[in-house]
Amino acid sequence: MDSVNLDKAVFALSEAISPQINCTDCGNCCKSLMVNINNQEADNLSAHLGQSRAEFDEKYLEKGESGRMVLNAIPCHFLVGNSCSVYEHRFEGCKEFPAFHVKEIKKRLFTTYMHYDRCPIIFNVLETLKKDLEWQYVSE
Ligand code: SF4
Ligand code: SF4
């Protein structure tokens, strides 16, 4: 199967499977992802929390020399139980996960498989795909 058709198949499975899974019963991505955030997102959430950017950055962010910013805790600071306490202000990386709508899944197979045993959406999409495509184990 070529890359375009694989993307289509994965997207279709994700569309069918995701509504059957309640992320608020899970929260596993929030317990294991390193979340990248940008300045706009930090501005939005710090304003929502009533904190200055300096205070927000000090509490929640780690900054790399390249300017890259990530949340400084795993699980995420904002996870309460299995739910996001700042859902309306969560970051793009959180909204995108597991990113089955993003093209070229073939280039993200490693990172997708990293979450295979944590994310029920990924697990079910890949397991269904394996059956649909009749994947077979090939020994060397
Ligand atoms: S901001 Fe919310 S959705 Fe994003 S990782 Fe944290 S708890 Fe999860
Ligand atoms: S790990 Fe997957 S199923 Fe669980 S909350 Fe995250 S996206 Fe939803």
Structural features, described:
The chain is mostly helical. The chain has two domains: 1-27 and 97-133; 34-96, no CATH class. It is 45% helix and 9% strand. The strands form two sheets. It has a three-stranded antiparallel sheet. It has a two-stranded antiparallel ribbon with strand order 4-5. Helix 1 (3-17) packs across helix 7 and helix 3 packs across helix 4 (53-60). It starts with a helix and ends in an 8-residue tail after the last helix. The mean pLDDT is 93. The site of one iron/sulfur cluster has 12 residues, from helix 2 and helix 7. One iron/sulfur cluster (SF4) binds at residues 30, 33, 35, 76, 78-79, 84, 86, 90-91, 94.
Give the key terms.
binds iron/sulfur cluster; single chain; 140 residues; 5 strands; elongated; three-stranded antiparallel sheet
Task: Summarize the model shown.
The protein contains seven helices and five strands. By secondary structure, it is mostly helical.
Bound molecules: iron/sulfur cluster
Major sheet details: 3 strands, antiparallel
- The average pLDDT value, as a whole number, equals 93
Q: Biggest sheet, strands in spatial order?
A: 1-3-2
Spans of at least 5 consecutive residues with low confidence: none
Q: What is the succession of H and E elements? A: HHEHHEEEEHHH
Task: Indicate the percent of residues in helices.
Answer: 40-55%
Secondary-structure blueprint:
Elements: H1 3-17, H2 28-32, E1 36-37, H3 39-49, H4 53-60, E2 61-63, E3 69-71, E4 79-80, E5 83-84, H5 92-96, H6 109-114, H7 120-132
Helix pairs in contact: 1-7, 3-4
One iron/sulfur cluster binds at residues 21, 23, 26-29, 97-98, 118-121.
